[in-house]
Write a structure and sequence with these properties.
29% of the residues lie in helices and 29% in strands. The chain has 282 residues and is α/β, with parallel strands linked by helices. The protein has a single domain, classed as 3-Layer(aba) Sandwich (UDP-N-acetylmuramoyl-L-alanine:D-glutamate ligase), CATH 3.40.1190.20. The strands form three sheets. It has a nine-stranded mixed β-sheet, sandwiched between helices. Strands 3-2-6-7 form a four-stranded mixed β-sheet. It has a two-stranded antiparallel ribbon with strand order 10-11.
């Protein structure tokens, strides 16, 4: 029996249709990758998302196959991203955005979980008041809150509403290029203190990650992996971190779990069902 038996996880955000340069599309978004990761780790997992009703069955099929309980809310549009990983920098273009998820969209029984992963992929994906009704260890991926759609396309930009989301979370995660625009002159420790975030994670790609806590800034070493499936690695990183913290691991140990799970996602395209939270002794 897995030691994590009984842990619950909740993921909120838009399921996406990810479009590749050649035109092929597939399910994506934080709820897709984090939901599958939580399920593989052994959590009883729920997902609340929005999409056009005609798209829901197709996009949520992998989650349903993994025994993830889904609450698919109707939306006028399905969040759609054009992703390109062929260059020196990953490119993400928001083509369509779903309606927001509000507090009334969550039944009372769905508002609490041991690990809660917020994955807004655009600035109106989740309403701040939705976050306020949740109970549990809440983590948020800042990627969607750092993106803004304009005449020139999707760009990274500061967000004045960031404080409304961070007031309710214990853990925040961002890639280095995202946190760079959100800092607005602050250092990482200053950012963490200003928003009263217990733990801040900054992913650095193949260079690992940074863990910022009250004790200071620590480096989390990357786990070597062949870059075969780059999409979703950051989503899995935060999901595994939250799961490890809910399982009783301290922040640094949870960061190591997250690095190994993220490496599995990059190399295998998923977190294996036999993934162990603790590394085997040499």
């Amino acid at each position: 029996m897995r030691e994590s038996f009984g842990l619950s996880a909740l993921v909120l955000g838009a399921i996406t249709r990810d479009v590749e340069p050649g035109g092929a599309s597939s399910p994506g978004g934080v709820v897709h990758y984090a939901g599958l990761a939580f399920a593989a780790l052994g959590a009883r997992t729920r997902v609340v998302t929005r999409s056009r009703p005609d798209d829901a069955r197709e996009l949520l099929a992998p989650l349903c196959a993994a025994k993830v309980e889904t609450r698919a809310l109707a939306s006028r549009e399905t969040t759609t991203y054009a992703n390109d990983y062929s260059g020196s920098e990953d490119r993400h273009e928001l083509l369509a955005a779903s309606d927001p998820i509000g507090p009334g969209d969550l039944p009372p029984a769905w508002r609490r979980a041991d690990a809660i992963h917020l994955g807004p992929l655009h600035r109106r994906d989740l309403l701040p008041e939705t976050v306020a009704v949740l109970e549990g260890r809440i983590g948020i991926d800042l990627q969607g809150l750092a993106r803004r759609s304009g005449a020139a396309g999707t760009e990274l930009a500061p967000n004045a509403e960031l404080k409304d989301f961070l007031a309710h979370v214990a853990v925040a995660k961002a890639a280095e290029e995202e946190i760079a625009v959100l800092l607005e002159g602050r250092t990482l420790p200053e950012f963490r203190r200003q928003f009263s975030i217990a733990e801040l994670l900054v992913t650095l790609g193949a260079r690992g990650a940074l863990l910022v806590t009250q004790s200071g800034v620590e480096e989390i070493a990357a786990v070597p992996a062949r870059r075969r499936f780059p999409t979703g690695a950051g989503d899995v990183f935060l999901a595994a971190y939250l799961f490890a913290r809910a399982s009783g691991r301290e922040p640094r140990a949870a960061g190591r779990v997250a690095a190994r799970a993220s490496a599995a996602q990059i190399e295998l395209g998923h977190v294996p069902r036999d993934f162990a939270l603790d590394e085997a002794a040499p």
